[in-house]
Design a protein that fits this description.
The chain has 686 residues and is of the alpha+beta class. Among the domains are: 133 residues, Rossmann fold; 92 residues, no CATH class; 101 residues, Dna Ligase, domain 1; 78 residues, no CATH class. It contains 17 helices and 35 strands. Helix 2 packs across helix 7, helix 10 crosses helix 12 and helix 12 packs across helix 13. It is globular. It starts with a strand and ends with a strand.
Length: 686
């Protein structure tokens, strides 16, 4: 199951091609990025993230509108990605949440799966549940696989509502047994709780995740309840600010790589957990396609974290869930692997005396020591500045000035702790950060049976292009693609992404399945899509299957017309590819059906970058902007400094540094750089 570019129908409101004015804004932990596309030109802004993120969104928007000479009222499409949901979950700043379960299942959130991620850890630590035990209530009812076994009485519902009133929750998660097969009890209880607790948000598992596996369903519903009030407040504030600024209401990027109207996103926060990283993947797919490359590894290094994703045949894989902050969230997500390594990651000495970098970050306030805003800890950005990879200005619309003396002072304090010189400590920080990122890249490639040497590394984010070549060399890769607008590619992904909704339904039936089973199950999901006003959408269908006796499923695509034999053959091929063998003729179970409703937003997929490249090649005189000393191969070497828009058709040998407004690319010795016809920058090993 994957996400990628495709030819499909346009949504009328967004298919104005080059005449459209498209705005995308991505809020990261350190920087807020904005991209405005109009008339075939791209305007960019990068500002430090503000405490109230909605303020930074509007400030960055104003900057790109000023650059383009456009009025806010002329914006046709506004898409937004954020970190509000992720940060609230990781920092445990969600709503005061209660939960209601079937009698006997009160503690399922605490019991979990009893699995041990660290087999030899004698004292494993699990994060405490999002819902405290005194906030977890039960109702006497029972739905089984064959229907209602014990009805849910009105008296029982009123009693639990009265108890919840005393607890005064901001949100309630309702997860009753087998509600994915029969949601009537949950729906009745949810209706009553919304009436009796008018200020509280109510999340029903039969709406959030109508899928079997009780713990994952309950956990996902609890996460949704815990986060939705926080995310809803932010989105309502953003909507008010946007309206006041004359902007259209923003659409919100989901973890699955599609966008949703703000009003729908406000009602359910769990699908937004990987909002920002998903947009980066969309941008990477778009940029790679411009250069006719479809097998890439996306490497997005920002100020706080690094996200990596494998993209095959122009499509990034979707996973049906993952753990975020230690909590399972079983919703469709772009298969992103995230680590706490970014430009603002702090270097320190651990209890064993080893140098580590991250996951703690200096963030935007105070930021790295070299920002001169009160930060005193040495960060990866300080190391890159001291080693000569960065200039004295960070670039971007904020125009952050960098102080090499402050960076050196911070690194010197760290160097004294490990008994090293300045160069050794700074280089050590870079190597440690690189090692963590190489490990992440191996997780999504080598550990899954993919040879990274067969892929191109797409390096983006504010810090990604500085590390791209060194990471590629460690993995034996010979090519790195640095996209146009690489420093704000996630924001660009906001306007390149499609509008998308996903549904899943468990249909597990021990009596078997047929074409009629598929037809009826998908018809139910298509009704849900119609109710969500996905007008003009096209559908992508998948099914989860497994051999009888197995406990986990494989997801395969379902083509029309429905054909059970063809689907079984597709499952056998998937099993062979995944495990190296199959069991021809063994009975298979149909577990879940999945429907993605997609409205294409493809007005960006014209040749805007190509047009700009032709002008550059014809009119730009290729000359370096200067030179400076940078640390390579154990010594200080003279590196040419180039502005990216002044390279023209030259091939730039390393060592060199290529600067642009939102990012810096490092070209080490034995590497060379050039610009292709899509204005993408390539690094190649010589």
């Amino acid at each position: 199951m994957g996400w990628g570019n495709g030819k499909c129908r346009n949504e009328k409101s967004h298919a104005k091609s080059a005449a459209a004015v498209l705005l995308g804004v991505d809020v990261g932990g350190t920087f807020t990025d904005a991209v405005l596309l109009t008339g075939g030109r791209i305007f960019r802004a990068k500002l430090p993230t503000t405490a109230d993120q909605s303020e930074g969104v509007i400030a960055a928007t104003r900057l790109v509108l000023e650059q383009a000479g456009a009025a806010a009222g002329k914006v046709d499409w506004f898409a937004h990605g954020m970190t509000i949901a992720t940060n609230a979950l990781l920092e445990r700043r969600g709503a005061r949440t209660a939960a209601v379960a079937t009698a006997g299942f009160r503690d399922i959130l605490e019991i979990g799966r009893q699995n041990r991620p660290r087999l030899y850890d004698l004292c494993p630590r699990r994060p405490p549940p999002l819902v405290d035990r005194e906030m977890r209530l039960t109702v006497d009812e029972r739905v089984g696989p064959d229907g209602v076994e014990m009805p849910l009485s009105r008296q029982e519902m009123e009693q639990v509502a009265a108890e919840l009133k005393k607890l005064k929750p901001e949100a309630v998660a309702v997860c009753l047994l087998f509600s994915f097969l029969d949601p009537s009890h949950e729906q009745a209880l949810g209706s009553l709780l919304r009436r009796e607790l008018p200020g509280a948000h109510v999340s029903l598992s039969s709406r959030i995740l109508p899928k079997f596996r009780e713990y994952e369903r309950f956990s996902t519903t609890a996460v949704d309840a815990y986060l939705t009030p926080v995310v809803g407040r932010y989105l309502k504030k953003l909507a008010r600010r946007s309206k006041k600024a004359g902007l259209p209401e923003p659409a919100i990027m989901q973890s699955s790589g599609g966008v949703l109207p703000l009003r729908e996103a406000s009602g359910s926060a769990a699908p937004l957990l990987l909002s920002g990283p998903a947009a980066g993947v969309v941008g990477a797919v778009f940029a790679a396609a411009k250069s006719s490359v479809d097998n890439v590894i996306a490497f997005d290094m920002g100020g706080t974290s690094t996200d990596v994703t494998l993209i095959r045949h122009g499509s990034a894989d979707l996973t049906d869930g993952r753990q975020v902050g230690g909590f399972p969230v079983a919703l469709p997500m772009v298969d992103v692997h995230t680590i706490g390594a970014g430009g603002g990651s702090i270097g320190r000495v651990d209890a064993g005396g080893a140098l580590v970098v991250g996951p703690e970050s200096a963030g935007a306030h105070p930021g790295p020591a070299c920002y001169g805003r009160g930060g005193t800890s040495a960060t990866a950005t300080d190391a890159n500045l001291y080693l000569g990879y960065l200039g004295d200005t960070l670039g971007g619309s904020g125009g952050v000035r960098l102080d090499r003396g402050l960076a050196a002072s911070a690194i010197k304090r760290l160097a004294s702790e490990i008994g090293a010189g300045l160069e050794e400590a700074a280089l050590g920080m870079k190597k440690v950060a690189d090692a963590e990122m190489v490990k992440a890249l191996r997780v999504i490639s080598v550990e899954r049976g993919h040879d990274p040497r067969r892929f191109v590394l797409v390096a983006f984010g504010g810090a990604g292009p500085m590390h791209g070549a060194s990471l590629a060399a460690e993995l034996g890769m010979s090519k790195v693609l640095v996209p146009a607008s690489c420093g704000v590619l996630s924001a660009l992904g906001m306007v390149a992404g499609d509008r998308r909704r996903n549904w899943v339904l468990t249909v597990l039936d021990p009596r078997g399945w047929s074409e009629q089973t598929l037809k009826e199950a998908f018809a139910k999901l298509e009704e849900d899509a119609a109710a969500a006003y996905m007008v003009g959408a096209y559908f992508v269908r998948h099914a989860d299957l497994r051999y009888k006796g197995q406990s986990h499923e494989l997801t395969v695509k379902v083509d029309l017309p429905y054909n059970a034999a063809r689907l079984y053959a597709a499952f056998e091929r998937a099993h062979e590819n995944a495990y190296g063998f199959s069991f021809p003729g063994r009975a298979a179970e149909l577990v879940n059906v999945r429907l993605a409703a997609i409205i294409a937003m493809d007005s960006l997929r014209g040749n805007t970058a190509g047009t700009r490249r032709k002008k550059t090649a014809a009119h730009v005189r290729s000359v370096p902007a200067g030179e400076r000393l940078a640390f390579f191969d154990g010594s200080w070497q003279t590196a040419q400094v180039w502005r990216r828009d002044r390279i023209g058709e030259r091939r730039i040998p390393g060592p060199a540094v290529i600067e642009e407004d939102e990012a810096t690319t490092v070209v080490p010795p034995r590497w060379a750089a050039f610009i292709d016809n899509a204005y993408n920058l390539w690094l190649e090993a010589c």
